[in-house]
Amino acid sequence: MARQIRFDTTGGPEVLRLHETPVRDPGAGEVVIRVDAIGVNRADAMFREGRYFYPPALPSGLGYEAAGVVEAVGPDVAGAAVGDSVAVLPAFKLTEHGTYGDHVVVPATSLVPRTADPVTAAATWMAYVTAYGALVEGDPVAKGDHVLLTAASGGVGLAAIQVANSIGAVPIATTRTPEKRQRLLDAGAAHVVVTSEEDLVARVREITDGQGVSTAMDPVGGPGLAEVVGTVAPGGRLLAYGLLDPRNDLSKGLPTVPGIELGLYTLFPVTYDPERRRRAVEFVEAGLDAGTFTPVVDRTFDLGEFAEAHRYLESGAQFGKIVLTVGL
């Protein structure tokens, strides 16, 4: 029997339930993972609430990231064997697979070899592949370019600071509270704008000598998106991902601003494509091996504390990733 976290209706953390269910056999291209740690992401909470960019098929599991050991292999699986220590990266839909449990079935194509401890491995792949896809893959940020990272104290923001530094860009981080200013500077941000105390557009224009940033990554959206647009240089781009503000309305799309590229961004064009996924994994593994990339874990919770972990996630108090642990 496996312990798995599921929900029967959308809503807050209280809708999550721990179920005991038989572990199903892996199908073609699938493996069973005995899970040691699970990365908790904003996407999980939005999916649970029914605000994700596709709806759950109820009853539903959830979760994109995990680290553990392969316990069973289905037909037509190459490159994975029973006993392998692995991490799971987001390369599937939550309506088809999920990682919240002590035993889960995932596609073999979502596996990467695990060399770090389980907690670190579970905190790596969503954040760093998201940052890689935005800043390196396709239309790479140039050395010396300024990059704006709003709400930068989350897992993706901190990973993007490290990725930007690794390619010679200049990361500008934002935070609502002055308490996180020094921590973001210590994490590698070249500049930090405290939005509760400073005018974002004016401060970014000052930092960039009036030019603006070449790329902005914003996970919030909502009314504040217009202010972020004002920080982008002509010919630059704003990548909206996450869309955490509940006032976002995807049916209306993003505003059109002459001379600036605005787009909705996800990591899935990278993780679903075998060649792009290979490049992303190589890039992230090289950074981890060199010590250039160091995942930041704010706090761990036991698997049974799943609701508390989601409440903490939604509080916005964290600095880095939240991880659920299983028997660690």
Outline of this structure?
With 328 residues, the protein is an alpha/beta fold. Helices cover 26% and strands 27% of the residues.
| CATH C-level class of the largest domain | Alpha Beta
Total domain count: 2
**What order do the helices and strands follow?**
EEEHEEEEHHEHEHEHEHEEHHEHE
Number of alpha- plus pi-helical segments? 10
Global morphology: globular
Distance between the termini: 19 Å
Multimerization status = single chain
As residue ranges, the low-confidence spans are: none
Radius of gyration over C-alpha positions, nearest whole angstrom: 19 Å
The CATH homologous superfamily of the largest domain is termed: Medium-chain alcohol dehydrogenases, catalytic domain
Would you tell me the structural class of the helices and strands?
A: alpha/beta
Helix content: 25-40%
The CATH level-2 architecture of the largest domain is identified as: Alpha-Beta Complex
The biggest beta sheet reads: 7 strands, mixed
Beta-strand residue percentage: 25-35%
CATH topology of the largest domain: Quinone Oxidoreductase, Chain A, domain 1
Return the average pLDDT rounded to an integer: 94
* Count of distinct strands: 15
